[in-house]
Write a sequence for this structure.
């Protein structure tokens, strides 16, 4: 029943967005409808990925889940890169990272903590994740610190090299966590439901979902400039808060639901894993993509504001998760920091 | 006997300060006498608070102890705010935070460590405190980082919003630590002596002590500008070191005494708890107060030097306390960092 | 056999370097030969130190090992200081710190991790080391943050005071780790081989080795300016990467070998201990030395780039070692960060 309603919503929102786009309706209206559609198509992509993962076996399935987990963000960002909106791209990457660490994780810990006095999870996992998060932070901070002393060309070179190193580190992390040290890190596995469809249908739906995400993303990105202009919002705020929240809606609900079932390990894995993927995989891939797609390549130099937000989010998340147990107040702390960042980004 | 001497000192120092003030004696003399008086009246306020807390029962008593713990700092800062000496206020808040984390805690750990090879305490407490400390640091750093991109009016708005969020977070922390998760955090409780007086007398003395602190603070603040000028000291140094040390003298001795009785948990709670209260409660309350009392509201933007000092203090304290055990060398490290900061603040 | 080859290499490389120097051969050639000679004479100094330490008994021996461990770096830096090449000195100190933390430790953890799934060591040791590392970082960051508000004279004063405080803290650390808390920190001891020679010969060789290091260092430093110029390398890069790697070659191989024998505690002790010594002892000693030797004293103010590199290295090392266990991926992370830093330092 719930499933049926989802598909009806998916089709209606997708079709409406398409019509609104091709009929050149009011751009605010287009923007709102596209936002709703993104939530549905990203949810559909998530379902299709999981179903394919089910047939692919645990190892390849884990890989698929990991790489398709942020597919929506990657596709939205792709269109932003194509249009040369590099500042919005970086803002939305920043937003996705802090959204996952502060909002998704904060809500999960808070909601779970209201139901259970203390929730715990595999400390090893938290410790490994936090080392990786630090690599991510380092990799984003170093270019910004050194960019002042470099020419534009040198900055591009540095960005490309750092991007390639990060992608290598990320691929080796998959090797580490899925092959050589699988057993050490396993926690309550993220709940894998039954496969929704037959194998063939699953693959077909994965392709279909990817295409739908691509279209909706393009339509959404098309309205962005006009909407931010009309409401006097900065691209920073729209990228870092609006787009990031929309693109992550599916993960939000999944993580919170895990936490309320007392599977805090899975919730932490979704939230931290997703932000790691953005810093260590999505961001560097976009740098390489921009090099081929756009005239001028996007560099990996984030603004001070973005770095401050990311640094703060990583630092407090690391502090809260490193003991392997959580309570409602820790969730609240994460949310308070998210709100503070939201306020200052809105004002800037 | 020891008690009697204390009250004699209290009355003499308070009366002398009053006389010196109204007879317009030499301002250096006024300053020195007022400093001595502050130590006595702050000690008296501490005793009265504890006695009232004794009658109020554990829960309300804990709340009273927590909120009156930094009453002297709050009152001194109130008069500085009234006189528009915002820079000295922020310097004294900075000084109170680093004084508690580095000097009070450092002395406690060092003195305790000379007597006991290794002293340990509840790791959960340390871990929770450190998450809160990070919230405090984040809440002080973010406005400073973003203030560059804001107008004065926007900075005020941001300061007010951040202040309100911090006060809410602090009140919920009291709820967390005194109601929902009381049992998890309890350690060797801070030693509560016998109530010194009857219930009525205790309340009367609490009011009396508060009034005495208020008068002495006002007299002290009145001499400040002339004294700093005469000795060529910066307001930063006076606020961050002189006033902070004087205002915290009572807590200093209490924490060191706990440590030497091998109650390191209580010493840590006093030192860290007090600096948390300043960052998360006293500072934001002063922002709101300044909005009503003073013409121009005080913003929550600290200088780079102050933030560096706070960041350094929090970072090293977190590192030293997070394993739940201490030794003399760790105390020494905190003291060395305090001296280094004292030297550079003196030179700047 | 292996030993014999070492001594042949030692004598040949040393003599050749001397000849090249006095015959004013091509400076690039001089530089290359001197680099090779440094590796040999530093290795000889290490052997001689260990042999003397063997006769001196555990306590004095430990002290000797600790103070002579970075003798080569100290001597090279001494000649750089004498020639007033302060920027290269600071770059080489930075390079020695990050080289030990990222390259030596990274290689050790990586190599050990390929052979053993998980390697563990005394967590207490890691925790103490990390508190000390933070002192080191604090002591290097504070002068840089505050230097902006100081005159040259005040900066010198501050540098001298900070240097003296650090040396005191370091000496007390030796007291702590070798006297009062020896038992708490002991892990698998660093492997002490048989004494290679009789007591008298050992002392003689220690003196001889020190003299040889001194000569070779002077010859090396003499070629530096011309070589960096000819190849268009920055002094920062040469100091931070070339000189640091050469000066530490002996420690590199020792640490990696320990790790491959599953003595990870010893490897961590070598790498972290060595970088601690540089930050807390070698750097402040050089400040004091420069005050007496050179006309203008070297200040302790590092550049933003150097501080960023040190901060990043300490932060990620702390995160990786604090759980007392390591695996190949953690080693790889350290190496990736080292490479990223190498790339940006090369480009700047």
């Amino acid at each position: 029943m719930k499933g049926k309603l989802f598909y009806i919503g998916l089709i209606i929102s997708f079709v409406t967005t398409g019509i609104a786009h091709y009929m050149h309706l009011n751009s605010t209206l287009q923007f709102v409808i596209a936002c709703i559609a993104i939530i549905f198509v990203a949810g559909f992509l998530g379902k299709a990925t999981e179903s394919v993962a089910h047939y692919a076996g645990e190892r390849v399935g884990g890989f698929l889940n990991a790489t398709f987990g942020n597919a929506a963000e990657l596709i939205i960002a792709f269109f932003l890169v194509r249009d040369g909106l590099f500042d919005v791209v970086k803002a939305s990457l920043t937003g996705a990272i802090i959204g996952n660490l502060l909002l998704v994780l904060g809500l999960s810990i808070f909601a779970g903590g209201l139901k259970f006095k203390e929730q715990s999870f595999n400390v090893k996992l938290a410790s490994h994740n936090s080392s990786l998060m630090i690599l991510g932070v380092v990799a984003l901070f170093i270019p910004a610190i050194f960019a002042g002393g470099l020419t534009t060309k040198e900055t591009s070179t540095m960005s490309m090299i750092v991007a390639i190193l990060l992608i290598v580190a990320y691929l080796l992390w998959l090797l580490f966590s899925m092959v050589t040290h699988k057993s050490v890190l396993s926690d309550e596995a993220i709940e894998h439901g039954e496969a929704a469809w037959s194998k063939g249908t699953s693959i077909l739906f994965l392709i279909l979902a990817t295409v739908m995400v691509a279209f909706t993303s393009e339509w959404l990105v098309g309205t962005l400039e006009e909407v931010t202009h009309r409401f006097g919002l900065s691209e920073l705020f729209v990228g870092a808060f609006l787009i990031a929240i929309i693109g992550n809606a599916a993960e939000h609900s999944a993580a919170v639901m895990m936490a309320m079932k007392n599977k805090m390990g899975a919730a932490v894995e979704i939230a931290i894993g997703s932000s790691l993927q953005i810093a260590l995989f999505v961001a560097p891939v976009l740098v390489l993509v921009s090099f081929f797609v756009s005239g001028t390549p996007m560099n990996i130099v984030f603004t001070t504001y973005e770095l401050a937000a990311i640094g703060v989010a990583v630092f407090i998340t690391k502090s809260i998760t490193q003991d392997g147990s959580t309570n409602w107040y820790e969730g609240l702390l994460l949310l308070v920091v998210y709100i503070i960042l939201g306020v200052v980004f809105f004002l800037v």
